Amino acid sequence: MATLYLVPNLLGETPWEQVLPPATVELVSRLSFFIAEDVRNTRRFLKKLNPAINIDGLTFFELNKHTTALQQNSYLEPLLEGNDMAVISEAGCPGVADPGADLVRAAHRKNIRVVPLSGPSSILLALMASGMNGQNFAFTGYLPLKQPERNRRIQLLEKNAEQLGQTQIFMETPYRNNTLLADLMKTCQPATLLCIAADITSENEFIATRTIAEWKKNLPNLDKHPAIFLLYRNEGND
Q1: Cis amide bond preceding 190, omega within 30
Q2: What is the largest CA-CA distance in the chain?
Q3: In CATH, which superfamily holds the domain spanning 122-237?
Q4: How much is the pTM?
Q5: Which residues on adjacent β-strands are paired with residue 138?
Q6: Where are the domains of the chain?
Q7: Within 13 Å and on the Cβ side, how many CA atoms surround 237?
Q8: Burial class, 222, CB count within 10 angstroms (exposed 0-12 / middle 13-18 / buried 19+)
Q9: CA atoms of 198 and 228, how far apart (whole Å)
């Protein structure tokens, strides 16, 4: 039976040896069909894993938010013909905050074997390093762009963190990180804990958990830096 492999991509300019097992590189090197969120990015990624790969001999299908259900089904045809394939996200794990989830669901409907491979997940790594509740957490993706919806969502996340003891994990487009930080400073209570995890796995990695009151004294500049944000109740309430 052909298999659809879910291959994590690097989170930044990190040597693959630091975050991916050799078995993943060996597997990817023998595949000929790839479903990619960003084809150019994926071609560079594959060449980084194995410079000997003949990129021009590979077949790529582009998967993004504009890809229709009909196109996604057509991408699975090589699998139905007996060829293994891989889904590769622009960064991190396919199917998590990523358009790959719809394609994976389509694969399950066709009884195609789906195998996730180990690799870096900014969401999980940020949670591990936050010191926040790792047994009860929620990833809520991107917050609303416009006000007052955004502040209402922040208030809801803070409420859930306090009342449920649940870590709230979310993200923003890198060039809007500083705007999000400003909104968090204005909206959240001084004692609420905020973890900022930026440039995870890179040489500039920055991960710190502080109260809102403490962050207000020294906010980092996160412009154009990929980051994950986590909210939790004050540790004094534990």
Answers
A1: no
A2: 60
A3: Tetrapyrrole methylase, C-terminal domain (3.30.950.10)
A4: 0.90
A5: 168
A6: 3-116, 122-237
A7: 15
A8: buried
A9: 6
